[in-house]
Amino acid sequence: MPLAKRIIPCLDVTAGRVVKGVNFVGLRDAGDPVEIAKKYNDQGADELTFLDITASSDNRDLILHVIEAVASQVFIPLTVGGGVRQVGDVRRLLNAGADKVSINTTAVTNPEVVRDAAAKFGSQAIVVAIDAKAVNDDNSRWEVFTHGGRKATGLDAVEWALKMQDYGAGEILLTSMDRDGTKIGFNLPLTRAISDAVNIPVIASGGVGNLQHLVDGVLQGHADAVLAASIFHFGEYTVREAKEAMRAAGIEVRL
Amino acid sequence: MKIAIVDYGMGNLHSVVKSMQLVAAEHAEVVLTADAAIIDAADKVVFPGQGAMPDCMAHLQESGLIASVRRAAAEKPFLGICVGAQLMFERSEEGPTDSLGIFKGDVVRFPAEKMVDANGQKLKVPHMGWNNMTIRREHPLWAGIADGERFYFVHSYHFAPAEDIAVIESAYPYTFAAAVARDHIFAIQCHPEKSSAAGLKLLQNFVHWNGN
């Protein structure tokens, strides 16, 4: 009975509220963060990820209240990402009750933040989020993008993942940018290339449209965990159904 | 009844405190403290820890709480969690650590050459996620928790006890001691405060445990 592959629902938070929408368009209030977190916990979610999509810096601290409230009532690991710029941001989120903090654009613009945060809080608390997409026709070379996929960095995604592991990242959250929002499944060659290259766990994200995509992410992409948002938020599938599908495919899950 | 959670400046104790308060309810007052007198006066002590073991030991030394922690471990129901539990052994491969030596044995890293599963696929370190807990020996803190229940782990080093104290085992890919116990001491590698209902059950059992 080995270690279970994890299923992680991802919640978008803005100005202290959980919202849902398609590709950031038509955002609707999705309800109380604690109630939503409890619901996913009851369904058997292995962790929860909160992504702060607050545009205005004025409201950034509101995510702290969300995390504090959730961490006081839901006892599974919580990851928070979005807008993390310095070691102080990491500290504030951890003190509010986050177990891991995910660093994305700042890892590219100032990788020392990753190194310093890992040294200070331990690698187990630091996730580096990598947004990557294919830069050749046969989907065999991938580049890192920042700013929500709009800005190319020139960095090779596999090399970047290895570098972030060296800097002390304890986990990689890999988003297939060319798949995000498409519902056609993860970029499997990308996921597999990165997961096979590094020694730390890799969470696959971006493009999930059905439960077979989660299965493929683990069996073909070699992901250690799979993250999805819309298939859970809009009630298409419960986390439990996702786990049952994974178990039926021979994947070890916590049920 | 008072339960002290030892705060020696290592890591995020928010969830440990909140989960203990939830399960203690009206049965116990749970306090997070860096005060030796409060630890000495407490009926039970929780000793957490997070990060690198040498850093944790250095912080514990600076905190001036070692004597209180030792007294608590010698006298009353005592729960070590994660690196707090590791500090109760003699040595660690993570670096030179003049640790507490309450248990005989070492803390060792998952060796790279063994990290392959039955299908030949590479196993990642840290060992992160939910793994099965197999009962090796019955213990009051495991009452009401199923044999094989999954708990949440995140660690790169594990206990290698040199005495027969393992009560719960897990496997990654080989079997290792996931929880050890002797007398009124229970020490666990994974995170009950992050292990949902099963983890809360363990903490609740600790609240009601008299150490026998």
From TrEMBL, chain A:
* Record field: catalytic activity: 5-[(5-phospho-1-deoxy-D-ribulos-1-ylimino)methylamino]-1-(5-phospho-beta-D-ribosyl)imidazole-4-carboxamide + L-glutamine = D-erythro-1-(imidazol-4-yl)glycerol 3-phosphate + 5-amino-1-(5-phospho-beta-D-ribosyl)imidazole-4-carboxamide + L-glutamate + H(+)
The catalytic activity of this protein is classed by the Enzyme Commission as 4.3.2.10
Uppermost EC category:
lyase
Q: Which GO terms describe its molecular function?
A: imidazoleglycerol-phosphate synthase activity; lyase activity
InterPro entries found in the cross-reference section: Aldolase_TIM (IPR013785), His_biosynth (IPR006062), HisF (IPR004651), IGPS_HisA/HisF (IPR050064), RibuloseP-bd_barrel (IPR011060)
Any Gene Ontology biological process:
L-histidine biosynthetic process
By sequence similarity, the record places it as follows: Belongs to the HisA/HisF family.
User: What's the protein name?
Assistant: Imidazole glycerol phosphate synthase subunit HisF
Q: Which purpose does this protein serve, as stated in its record?
A: IGPS catalyzes the conversion of PRFAR and glutamine to IGP, AICAR and glutamate. The HisF subunit catalyzes the cyclization activity that produces IGP and AICAR from PRFAR using the ammonia provided by the HisH subunit.
Q: Which UniProt keywords apply?
A: Amino-acid biosynthesis, Cytoplasm, Histidine biosynthesis, Lyase
Automatic annotation (TrEMBL), chain B:
Q: Which reaction does it catalyse?
A: 5-[(5-phospho-1-deoxy-D-ribulos-1-ylimino)methylamino]-1-(5-phospho-beta-D-ribosyl)imidazole-4-carboxamide + L-glutamine = D-erythro-1-(imidazol-4-yl)glycerol 3-phosphate + 5-amino-1-(5-phospho-beta-D-ribosyl)imidazole-4-carboxamide + L-glutamate + H(+); L-glutamine + H2O = L-glutamate + NH4(+)
Q: Name the InterPro entries on file.
A: Class_I_gatase-like (IPR029062), GATASE (IPR017926), Imidazole-glycPsynth_HisH (IPR010139)
Cite a single GO MF annotation. imidazoleglycerol-phosphate synthase activity
Please report the stretch or stretches of sequence annotated as the Glutamine amidotransferase domain.
5-207
Task: List the GO biological process terms.
Answer: L-histidine biosynthetic process
Q: What job does the chain carry out?
A: IGPS catalyzes the conversion of PRFAR and glutamine to IGP, AICAR and glutamate. The HisH subunit catalyzes the hydrolysis of glutamine to glutamate and ammonia as part of the synthesis of IGP and AICAR. The resulting ammonia molecule is channeled to the active site of HisF.
Q: How does it assemble?
A: Heterodimer of HisH and HisF.
Q: What's the protein here called?
A: Imidazole glycerol phosphate synthase subunit HisH
What is the taxonomic lineage of the source species? Bacteria, Pseudomonadati, Pseudomonadota, Betaproteobacteria, Neisseriales
Name of encoding gene? hisH
